[in-house]
Specification:
CATH class of the domain at 129-252: Mainly Beta
CATH architecture of the domain at 129-252: Sandwich
CATH topology of the domain at 129-252: Immunoglobulin-like
Strand content: 15-25%
Shape: elongated
Radius of gyration: 56 Å
CATH superfamily of the domain at 129-252: Macroglobulin (MG2) domain
Number of helices: 3
Largest sheet: 5 strands, mixed
Distance between the termini: 108 Å
Order of helices and strands: HHHEEEEEEEEEEE
Amino acid sequence: MKLDIHTAVITIVALLSIIALYGFLVGVRSIRKARTLKFFRMRRDRMVIGWRMVFLSAVFLISAILIRSFAEPIAYSFFPPTVTPTLTPTITITPTISLTPTTSLTPTITPTPSVSDTPTITPTPHIPLVIEDSFTSTTTPNPEAVFSPLQFARELDDNFFPIDPAITFQNPVGHLYAQFTYDKMTPGAQWSALWYYGNNLVYYETNPWDGGTGGIGYTDWNPEPYLWLEGEYEVQIFVGTSWKTSSRFTVEGQPPTAVPSITPTLTRTVTSTLSPSLTVRPTQTRVPTQTPTPRTPFVSPTPTRENTRAPTFTPAPPTNTSTNAPTYTRTPSPTQ
């Protein structure tokens, strides 16, 4: 007979509880009987035995409580759980005996519906090409890798077990985890988790597998509160491009209203500055006028007494010095 870890823990706890109860009853019975004995030594020995049985029953009871609380998580850390696929039973129809009617009934007209409801085919989940193009791993995944159904919870404990798992959540949802167990995974193989709201992909993550070959894992989503719309969601797990498992949950209640954020708009003001233009203005050089050379006055020498005749003075003709007119030079000068 093969027992799993959970069954073994429950069996040990049950046995310890029975032993503790039996020891307590025996101890109480021994204490009561010791009180009826007349001899001191016999009474004392019987009392010691009784109290010892009560103490041992308390030890067994405490051990049972500790094993029930901590034995299973510790065992899973050394022996990762293996997912056992759930087999869907097939219904075998038992043939019944058809009775042959003796009287033939007149057939009635059966109205034919104008529109026949054709059942729609549920497609197998597939990974979108956009996400497939973003794969970075070159490791070939193991096609025999298995995943358990997902469990949804707002929190996980220290051993990655869901706290208060559920399939219906009230708004505001907040941070949500999808926990699973796995086995036969190949480290480094590409895996993906897709979160759908109806038929719309609202979130996904795809990375090379960084865990072990078997154990416990999870995918999580923590959007803004107003993004949790009311309705049904589905989470799908893929290894490579192969679909492994998927589960659904429901969100009830209207999401909180998104608070608009004020984004400052930068307005650039362009100030035009007029640049001074260069104005070419010729420098005018004035033409000097002709300045006549002043006549040099003639100073008559002082006559001596020896000269009796006054000399005749002839004035020198004026000398005109003319200056040629200078040419115009166009020299540009910047005007600020």
